[in-house]
Amino acid sequence: MALVGAVAGAAYDRRVVPAPQRRGPWWVLEADLHAHTRFSDGFLGPADLVMHAERSGLHVLAVTEHNLVFPGLMASAWARATSPVVVLPSEEITASGYHVHAVNIASRVLPRHDLGAVIAAVHAQGGLVIAAHPVRAFWPALVPVRPWLDGAEVYHPLALGAEGTGRRWAEMLAFYDDAARDGRRLTAVGASDYHFFAPLGVCRTLVFARAWSREAAVEALAAGRTVVVDHLGHRWGDPAMMALLDAAPRAPAHASPGYQARSGLDAATRLMGLLGLLGLVLFRRR
After folding, report:
1. Burial level of 105, CB count in 10 A (0-12/13-18/19+)?
2. What 8-state DSSP symbol labels residue 194?
3. Which of 47, 221, 268, 280 lies at a C-alpha separation of 20 to 30 Å from 189?
4. Taking the alpha carbons of 89, 48, 55, 67 in that order, is the dihedral positive or negative?
5. Domains of the chain in sequence order
6. pLDDT averaged over every residue in the chain
7. Which residues contact 79 (CB under 8 A, 6 or more apart)?
8. Could you report the per-residue pLDDT of 125-135, keeping only the tens digit for each?
9. CA-CA distance, 263 to 284, in Å (whole number)?
10. What pLDDT does 138 receive?
11. Cα dihedral sign for 68, 147, 242, 172?
């Protein structure tokens, strides 16, 4: 039964990444820039995460493991060999007083008390530094170095009701808006903070790039050519890119159904696989 479920599941596992749309001279790449693997507190392995990005219709994925970069490098290698998804090897540099993403790096950057030194180390590799869910608890560390940050998350599952930790989405928006009032427009980022189950891509970044490539995606992020649209239709990002979207509206992005069945037969074969695995666990010969 488990074998039948596995074979049928593989047959139903269709992963088609739609070609990015064009607006003016730019390719509009749909990106999720915050995702974890099983090497810390995630559910999927690096290769599985790339395949799940395909199911979610993502063009760009940043694998941002906590204080590790090798899962992102593994995902990037797998994607180059098997997938159209562009993977940016990254790291969520995680300390008690701040979380920042080092995007597009090759070597791990260890957290330090001096966040300015962390930012300098990332920039020395040609990477970008994005404030991860910059809620008020992180402001004492983030605000003094905000002039040297490249971007900040403005849309996160906190916006969808995941506020049980005491963190609030409004605090993230305040951090971004305060930077703008100080004359620093940070690159706006929407990201799912993916750990498990379906929501990869539920919060996305529209990246306006010269090509569908790693180099072009990083250049666009560095230049701030992004737009983030939340579930209520509010927008953050580059005003010129917003004007392009106003001139030629596009359908809102949606996360994939993830692990939900696509048909009755698909659901039945999944149930067979689960029951077969349960039988192997409970009734295996000792």
Report:
1. buried
2. B
3. 47
4. negative
5. 30-202 (3.20.20.140)
6. 89
7. 50, 61, 85, 86, 87
8. 999 999 999 99
9. 31
10. 97
11. positive
